[in-house]
Amino acid sequence: MEARKDQYEAYVKSVTPVHSTWKNVLMAGISGGLICLAAQISTNCLVQTGMEEKTAALWTMLGLILLSVILTGANVFQKLARVFGAGVLVPITGFANSVASPALEYKAEGQVFGVGCKIFTIAGPVILYGILSSWGLGVVYWGWMMLTQ
Questions:
Q1: Which of 65, 77, 141, 149 could form a disulfide linkage to 96, CB 3.0–4.6 angstroms apart?
Q2: Residues 128 and 109 reside in one and the same domain
Q3: Distance CA 43, CA 55 (A)
Q4: Are 124 and 97 in contact, with CB atoms under 8 Å apart?
Q5: SS3 for 123?
Q6: Is the pLDDT of residue 99 over 80?
Q7: 50 in a structural domain
């Protein structure tokens, strides 16, 4: 019995991927920084054309979302995420990918039971807990303001 356990542990160790934490951190920092740099350059260029800064920032975000959805549809986003990791997945580009991926995957099941039911399977918890935590922090802030007045 002990020999089988050792064989199983050796098998698991042989098929488990090895990750370099420092490489992952470096790639995430570089890719996230490049995305932010590109977004800032885009916003600055739009401001230079006479657009208000808030409007330029909104157009930049829309551009990043559109680019992310296009790359997801072309099956390029996943390849980028495999190489760059969290740097690509954490910004708004990753959120757009998390909505577009299930929509593409389940489109064969129809608009209602495929896309409609599955589109927020990944992004839904993020939205839910984002709203819940912001509500909770709002209550804490309200309570703090009531106590300090």
A1: 65
A2: no
A3: 9
A4: no
A5: helix
A6: yes
A7: yes
In a domain, residue 140? The reply is yes
DSSP secondary structure of 28-59: HHHHHHHHHHHHHHHHHHHHHTT--HHHHHHH
* Average pLDDT, integer, range 75-93: 87
Distance of CA 116 to the CA centre of its chain: 20
Predicted structure pTM score: 0.70
What is the C-alpha end-to-end distance of the chain, expressed in Å? 69
Calpha distance 106→117 (Å, rounded)? 9
How many residues in total does the chain contain? 149
CA pair distance 82, 62, nearest whole angstrom: 24
> In this predicted structure, what is the pLDDT of residue 112?
78
CB of 134 closer than 8 Å to CB of 107:
no
**In this predicted structure, what is the pLDDT of residue 33?**
92
Contact 47, 56 (CB under 8 A): yes
Give the separation between CA 144 and CA 97, rounded to whole angstroms: 38
DSSP 74: T
